[in-house]
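Extended Data, panel c. Modelled sequence:
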Amino acid sequence: GEVIGVDPGRGEVRMSTAATRHPLLWRFLRGLRAGRVLSGTVASIESFGVFVALDEGPAHPIHPGVGFVTFPELSWRYFDDPSDVVRVGERVSGAFLHFDTSNGEARLSLRALLPDPFQEFADAVAVGQVLRGRVTRVVPFGVFVEVADGVQGLVRPPTGPAAERPTAPEEVGAQGEEVAVAVVEVDRERRTLLLSRVRAPG
């Protein structure tokens, strides 16, 4: 077997029997380098991610495909259902992230090959700028407002002495409502956008 972990304290060497039983698959996966683009067909959409049957390399002995994509790596955009992004049988390409030795999988990112709409938005916007957007989600700590395609920001309910009582998130805006918001903070690294609600004078 292939040594996948050594525990010096207990003098144990854990062996991967999968590596012994499927040497061609292991050799293929070990030879992949991060960033390499792999193509294939979406084999199945599960509750924990998406399997991709790769064009190259051997098939997986158990899973529907050797390629595996976690939900965040499918798209830069927020989605409720992975089948809104990919369909079984669809051709896809993804960047290789790493070899998951416990499952014998190539972890892939589809979004790595797409432009990040957040960075494009950050290039074009300034703090204090007023934008119009649509409320997409109401959560206990505020509401999310989509201000550009694939870009959502958080409006927190006002707090502090100016607010005599705590404001319910729904009072910032209801789902689907068009609202005016001002840019408070743009964090490129964390890809987060803070907004404040702008009330029409009156």
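The domain at 2-113 is CATH 2.40.50.140 (OB fold (Dihydrolipoamide Acetyltransferase, E2P)). This feature is highlighted in the accompanying rendering.
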